[in-house]
Amino acid sequence: MSIKRGVFPIVLLAIAIAGGVLPTLVGSALLLTLLTQAVINAILASGVGFLVRQNGLVSFGHAGFFGLGAYIVALSATYHVMPIGFALALAILAPALLALLLGLAILRLVGVAFSMLTLAVAQAFYELVLHWRELANGDDGIAAELPPRILGLDLAMFQQPGSMFLICWAMLILLLFGLRLLVESPFGTLTLAIRENEERARFIGFETIVPRAIVYAISAAIAALAGVLFTLYNGFVTPNVLYWSLSGEALVMAVIGGTRAVWGPALGAVIFFLFKDAAGDLTEHWPAIIGGTLIVVTVLLPRGVSGTITMLLERLGARAP
Amino acid sequence: MLIQLLNGLVYGGLLYVLSVGLVLIFGLRRVVNFAHGSLYMLGAYIGYTVASLGGFWLGLVVSVFALTVLGALLDRFVFRPLQDEDPIVTMLVTFGLLLVLEDAVRTVWGKDFLTMAPPPSLSGVLLLTGTNFPVYRLAVIGIAILVAIGLSLWLRLSRVGLYVRASSVDPVTTGMQGVDTERLSATVVAIGAGLAGLSGTISAPLVALAPSMGGSILIDSFVVVVTGGLGSFTGAFIAAMLIGQVHNWGVVFVPSAAPMIPLVLMVLVLIWRPSGLVRAGA
User: Fold this and answer.
1) Does B30 fall in a domain?
2) What is residue A1's predicted lDDT score, i.e. its pLDDT?
3) Residue in A105, A131, A135 closest to B259 by CB
4) Mean pLDDT over all residues of chain A?
5) What kind of fold does domain A7-319 have according to CATH?
6) What ipTM does the predicted assembly reach?
7) How near does any CA of chain B get to the CA of A48, in Å?
8) What residues have CB less than 8 Å from B232, skipping those under 6 apart?
9) Quick one: how many helices (H) and strands (E) in chain B?
10) In chain A, where the domains are located
11) Residue among B15, B112, B219, B220 with most chain A CBs within 10 A, to mutate
């Protein structure tokens, strides 16, 4: 199941450097824009995948946390309620806290009910933003009046695809590294044990709701981080960031990539965006394509690409002397 | 006051007819149909088109029939082949279906709002405590009550109803007793989808038709099903009536925060009773 332990940081470092030099190699601004979006979505998908991996639970509503993060930054920058640094922190912590409290209430339910409610909560936020026009212009969306400098960097750094790609890329690499550490920590092992058999974990003396709620909160914080990056990059937010087609997109990426490896969903996101680029003119029917892909991949490729790669590597390893 | 109470009953009734379909499907297949809101939406659109050609009642009949057929197909080509997989797989597939159906409806009927008139025989108003109340809304309450009574009688008194209740408790044992659970499931999923079509069509004269109309009612129906106790028919009825009232009073008093209120109520109920209002099978 595991590629040798020491290999992961080295491979990750190699990929990190490869990504780091990518903007200088890629001349086309359009492609770079696409790649930046892909990396932001890779972060979102990693959040969804982490929840599946550690809790065995599927969230149909991670757009809710993504959109919440995106809207908190946009609204607090526009209404000037707090310094941007605080706003960024709040935009990540508030969705995480919400997920923690919500998790404590709904993680007692069976997995099916949990999935239903994740969708319900995200969709309720969508409806809220849509109907409360005074807050954020409803359907028309809201332009974030971001300050000229954010955390010591010029705003332009966040809005040029070349530099923003590097920022998002660095975030993604740090995130994957952090997730890997977390997965291998005692906490990671405990949540896996709970995922495999909640009852036994309880019998040997562990409290099982709180660890799972923490995993849910972490995965929400990751989605919110992606939402924050989205607002910084685009400077504009519409209710679409809360809509279930985005939750669906994140799920497709996680399913394509496979969730057994922490890097699977991120790989899925990159593949998904290359596919989106190739789909080109068909993007008018994008939701249907997402839906169709989700159906096909779920049925035909249950392990995802990362699972298939890992399996092939293991076979090669088994054959080698 | 009375008017608001009645409006709550109208929404609660629609919600009940939709949610009870979800409960039926869950009972037999142990999965949640995420595309249920899309079936509701499809019911409304088919009803709209047929009604504009041949009148409201024909629209209602055709729409329910079309959705019943679609339900049988859904069972045959989605739920049945995937029954041995993790329930998550089926949920992902029906969620994919939701996205496809929403896009299909947008392509066929456009994304602009459409409106549909109630049937002429029910288009009047009734004077209730000094306010005019549309007869059609009373008719919707009546239809929901008829569905509730019909369904309870069918489940309690008929042989098929007995099988359905037995399967909801334990499908494997029911199968071992010689009940053809495959055929039963096809029937039940077809009925569930037909009810979604019924709910969609009767709601069409009350709301504006848009491809996103399935979304807001789907979340309320999920809240109903979970609050009522997953798989419980009685629970779904009580929860639908409760959420109908809460939703309606929310729209009247705090319109911008209304979508959140049913969720808050649900969280409170789940803290109080983690398995919902009524335990399934009881």
Assistant:
1) yes
2) 43
3) A131
4) 84
5) ABC transporter involved in vitamin B12 uptake, BtuC (1.10.3470)
6) 0.79
7) 13
8) B23, B276, B277, B278, B279, B280, B281, B282
9) 11, 2
10) 7-319
11) B219
